[in-house]
Design a protein that fits this description.
Elements lengths: L3 H9 L2 H22 L3 H18 L4 H23 L4 E2 L5 H27 L4 H9 L15 H22 L2 E2 H17 L12 H13 L14 H6 L4
Parallel strand pairs: 1-2
Length: 242
């Protein structure tokens, strides 16, 4: 029996690195939330979001969409961490500058293509505009509305991030596990944070308030700008910063 293909597969399939990345994502997400909400101003903002979310959750439209998103997100992540990431991740030491550079490139690469997708596909004239319109039912979004998204749109958003990892891997080389953990946490948490209600117009929360307000402007109707999600850099250079 020829086992050459199997040996090659196992040689490049770093299951341990992928597992460490998954555990790291879970731990860092929970730890960061714990530390962030030890700050009293953010505790107060969370309380406001939760109060509004309780009212929204009683509406019939929210539970089925949110639960469908959870299923799509779960299975998409399982495929990524089990079948894709093991070929692109390493536990071998890499210089700190390389890790930081990879993080920057991955996030900006993803954000560029998300900008294009969001602007010309989700806000275009095709069927994906109707799909995205579900999310835009939230005119004044709170935490829950980050999850009130059509499952197809959820898949597209995750696929863009995972695709960015896969496409850049041949150019950047295998990613250190820290790169994967940080880019994934930043990607997911910013997509949640920019939907929350934050009204803290003073240091050190002023930037956070500005970010959420910009995305809330985007939610006012289907004709506003601010299409990027990680930063508003592409909106700035392409003239869609609203």
């Amino acid at each position: 029996m020829d086992t050459t293909w199997l040996d090659t597969f196992l040689q490049h399939y770093n299951w341990l690195g992928s597992l460490v990345a998954l555990v790291g994502v879970v731990v860092l997400t929970k730890l960061s939330r714990y530390l962030v909400f030890r700050l009293k101003p953010l505790q107060e903002m969370r309380k406001i979001n939760r109060e509004q979310d309780k009212i929204k959750w009683k509406q019939d439209k929210y539970p089925p969409i949110v639960k469908a998103n959870q299923k799509v997100g779960l299975w998409t992540n399982i495929v990524f961490f089990a079948l894709m990431l093991p070929f692109f991740v390493t536990l071998d030491p890499l210089p700190a500058w390389k890790i930081l550079l990879d993080i920057f490139i991955v996030l900006m690469f993803y954000d560029f293509f998300y900008y294009l997708t969001h602007r010309f596909w989700f806000h275009g004239q095709g069927k994906m505009r109707q799909v995205h319109a579900l999310h835009h039912q939230a005119r004044t979004p709170t935490y829950l509305d980050a999850h009130y998204v059509h499952p197809l749109e959820t898949f597209v958003g995750l696929a863009l991030y995972f695709g960015s990892i896969a496409v850049l891997a041949p150019l950047l080389g295998p990613y250190h596990v820290v790169t994967v953990i940080l880019t994934f946490v930043i990607f997911t948490q910013i997509n949640i944070i920019n939907h929350t209600h934050v009204d803290l117009d003073y240091f050190p929360f002023k930037t956070l308030t500005w970010i959420t307000r910009k995305h809330h402007v985007h939610h006012e109707n289907m004709h506003m700008g601010n299409y990027a999600t990680i930063t508003l850099f592409y909106d700035k250079i392409f003239g869609t910063l609203d």
